[in-house]
Amino acid sequence: MKRFLLMSFVSLVAFQAVSIRTHADKPQGKSDALEAQSDQPVSVWMEKKLQYSQAILRGLATSDFDSIRENARSMGLLSRVEGFVRGKNADYRTHVRTFSQISKDIETQAELENIEGVAYAFNRLAISCVECHKTLRQSSADEPVSSTDESTD
After folding, report:
1. Best CA proximity match to 44, nearest among 65, 69, 62, 23
2. pLDDT tens track for 27-47
3. Which of 7, 72, 105, 142 is most deeply packed, by most CB within 10 A?
4. Residue 125: its H or E element
């Protein structure tokens, strides 16, 4: 267990270092459209998962099974670390487990070089993302607003 926690911590620190550099190197406006749509900032976790999923889609289009496998593996690991760090909500933990399993399915199908299997699993991944975000929006809508957060009209 200590080894798992240590590895998770090291992975998280490495991920943070990479994402800080990636964020600094990224041209402004890349995630602005996403932020404007939801009026909420795109988290570092979400930005990285979007990058991995885009790379998987690119791999699907080009039949690059190595890229699909590598990005699915990285996305699954990121999801598990994120779930460990942010997993206070039971529904969220369920979605993280589903996401991780589907990432593993994508990886497995890429190892088999089964393009239809990858495409099917990728579709399931997209659906799981939509369901998770619906849950998160509902959870935040159910939170009570404190008197300091209320605006005066």
Report:
1. 23
2. 444 444 334 344 455 688 889
3. 72
4. helix 115-142
